[in-house]
From TrEMBL:
UniProt binding sites for acetyl-CoA: 150
Lipid metabolism is among the record's keywords: no
PANTHER family per record: ACETYLTRANSFERASE, UDP-N-ACETYLBACILLOSAMINE N-ACETYLTRANSFERASE
Domain of life, source organism: Bacteria
Keyword Acyltransferase appears in the UniProt entry: yes
Family: Belongs to the transferase hexapeptide repeat family.
Residues annotated as binding substrate: 71
Name this polypeptide is given: Sugar O-acyltransferase, sialic acid O-acetyltransferase NeuD family
InterPro entries attached to this UniProt entry: AcTrfase_PglD-like (IPR020019), PglD_N (IPR041561), Trans_hexapeptide_repeat (IPR050179), Trimer_LpxA-like_sf (IPR011004)
Lineage, uppermost ranks: Bacteria, Pseudomonadati, Bacteroidota, Flavobacteriia, Flavobacteriales
Length: 206
């Protein structure tokens, strides 16, 4: 069966990590990358930059699917804007899962989310749209992760945590079980969260 062609939107460092996951999953053929118009013709890990995001509608009309490969440090605004552009023209965003990740059969992952190498999504967890579950991250049982969240490398979200939309959880951060994290919160790398977070912005350990 012929693999569906996928377009990657965003050509930075996160794109390189996504390429490795897509190649190893072996469900899609990477047709190319969209980035700045001025970079057209350059290559990232052997894949050509085809032009800018102005080409999204053209590729959607040709039944290509998309993965947003712009990284997310602090703000998810760029990823959200790209998502809206893709959906406006009828584009599809599959879920991409590394064969080296563990995802429970009872977990739910929404469109556009990528689960990187060695990440774990445990039983009955729910992951929203266009999330990044980065290398070695752990989302435990019954967690609810909102849309456009980045759960960064080796961070731990313990059981029954609820995280709102557009959050960033930095590398090696640990969020204790049964907590609620408001949307648009930044949890810095190495943080230990033992209380609910009710205010948007950067969480500070007290």
């Amino acid at each position: 069966m012929e693999k569906r062609k996928i377009i990657l939107v965003g050509g930075g460092g996160h794109c390189k990590s996504c390429i490795d996951v897509i190649e190893r999953e072996d469900k899609f053929t990477i047709a190319g990358i969209l980035d700045k118009e001025s970079l057209t013709g350059e290559k990232i890990l052997g894949y050509p930059i085809l032009g800018s995001d102005q080409l999204i509608e053209e590729f959607a009309n040709e039944n290509y699917c998309f993965l947003i490969t712009v990284g997310q440090i602090k703000s998810s605004a760029i990823r959200e804007k790209i998502y809206k552009t893709i959906k406006k023209v009828g584009g599809e965003l599959p879920v991409v899962i590394s064969p080296h990740a563990i995802v429970s059969k009872s977990a739910t992952l929404e469109e556009g989310t990528i689960v990187m190498h060695s990440a774990i999504v445990n039983a009955a967890a729910t992951i929203g749209k266009c999330c990044i579950l980065n290398t070695g991250s752990l989302v435990e049982h019954d967690c609810k992760i909102g849309n456009f969240c980045h759960i960064s490398t080796t961070s731990t979200i313990n059981g029954s945590v609820v995280i709102g939309d557009s959050c960033f959880v930095g590398s090696k951060a640990v969020i204790n079980n049964n907590l609620n994290i408001k949307g648009s919160v930044i949890v810095p790398s190495g943080s230990r969260v033992a209380v609910n977070i009710d205010a948007i912005g950067v969480f500070k350990n007290t």
